[in-house]
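cache lookup: miss for this entity combination. No prior model stored, computing from scratch. Input as submitted by user K.M.:
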Amino acid sequence: MGATTHGNNATAARRAPQIVMTEKPPTASEKEAQVRFEISDLNFFYGPKQAVFGLNLKIPKNRVTALIGPSGCGKSTFLRTLNRMNETIRNTRVVGEILLDGQDISQMDVVGLRRRVGMVFQRPNPFPKSIFENVAYGLRINGYQGRLDDLVEHSLRRAALWDEAKDSLHKSAFALSGGQQQRLCIARALAVDPEVLLLDEPCSALDPVTTAKIEELMFHLKDSCTMAIVTHNMQQAARASDFTAFMLDGRLIEHTETSKLFTTPTDPRTEAYITGRFG
Amino acid sequence: MSRILLIWRKFLNVVMLTLTGVAAFGVVAVLFLILGYLVWNGGKSLNFDFFTQLPKPVGETGGGMANAIVGSLKLLFLAALMGLPVGLMAGVYLAEFGGKTFSYVIRYTTDLLNGVPSIVIGIFAYSLAVLPFKHFSAVAGGVALGIMVIPITVRSTEEFLRAVPGSLREGAMALGASKWRTIATVVLPAAKGGIITGVLLALARVAGETAPLLFTAFSNRFWSPGWGQPIASLPVMIYTYAIAPYDDWHRQAWAAGLILLALVLVANIGTRFVLSRGGGGRSA
């Protein structure tokens, strides 16, 4: 369903990155990539405590943008403003503007926004249902009437879980290993065909082999999805992202192509962080 | 000096250990004493007739309490009908929506309601559902028991909903589910086992209540058709039979006590069994 509706307007943009992807590191053509999220002067408050200060950032379409920074620097908080997840926390306040494809997200219907902007969390959080029902959940709540089987299979394939899960679709999702559960959560998010996938430290609870699988998965998803990933792991940011934003104490310090940020950071604080002097 | 101190400490240790151990044993012993006594006395007079026959007229021996068993079940059904919807929904409100002050007030009130003596609730139900109609009825008994079911259900529902990890709620909401949808399709199913346990324990608890039934459901030595007539129940039958001057009635009171206890125990053990088999929904 959604695959076709979004497919048309995204074909042109989709072709460009595919060329770039084959030749890493990214070149100047990266800069021409369309902007999916445009964040201007974003401030975020937990009650009286400010967590994000005057943040400006553009998240390019069909690219992976990594957010790095020490614990508590506000990167997860920032990520969660992009699909308005922070609204579920009492007593929080957003000041500033976030545009998704030029549309102000604060004016959008939150249900529609979250369908377009999916999210994967730090710890795998499958629902206490079968594998099939986990993937079908998003389709069901969005009132999808067609055949679920094909879409569930398609989503599981996109999340590289189909081969492992196809024989136990109707078993509890808890029977899966941690890494499989996380891929199931990715499949669940992909089922509603989001334009953006937000990943909040998706690998922090996983072992290196599984982490590699998920990074590979992200690489393939770039064709159809824009991704923003929060990570503590700088190698992961270097490996898996096209752009990297470094945050410190709620402020964006530096944002540029990943290859540049890790080789020739312009800000001394960025350099100090990526060389492991703090954080 | 330090040696004496050491011996004193060891001595004190042994004394305290013994005291607490004896107390702990006492707790278990009381339960098993009651159980044993009931089984011993009740088992002797338990027979097939007890489950199938009506009470015999005064003076005749034999007969059973079929009407009281059915009556108790009917009263529990009414109590569930009246108390559970309110209790469950209030529990959902407290766990998922409640703000600080209002929730605190509700929680505090619920605990107070839980502490209200059952006889007082009986009087309340009497003035509410007996006086206006000028006769005792099953419905009035159901009202009294239903009120008692509410606070237990509220608190257990709230507790089990709170035990559902927030990450599940976030997962559902991140997929675009509205709040009520998240609760209905993810949170409640995840807490299902626990909530059912709470409900069964609440019903088991009121199944043994006598005082609120004495002047609401009253009692009945015959079948009570429909819901508007006085109705027999096991606890009230136990009370009536135990204070009567007939040996045969005493035996039957014991038997009824045994049945009541068995009912409560089965509910208790059954739910524990269901829970341990992953009915809570969260275990692997």
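stored under new cache key. Residues 279-284 of chain B have pLDDT under 50 and may be disordered.
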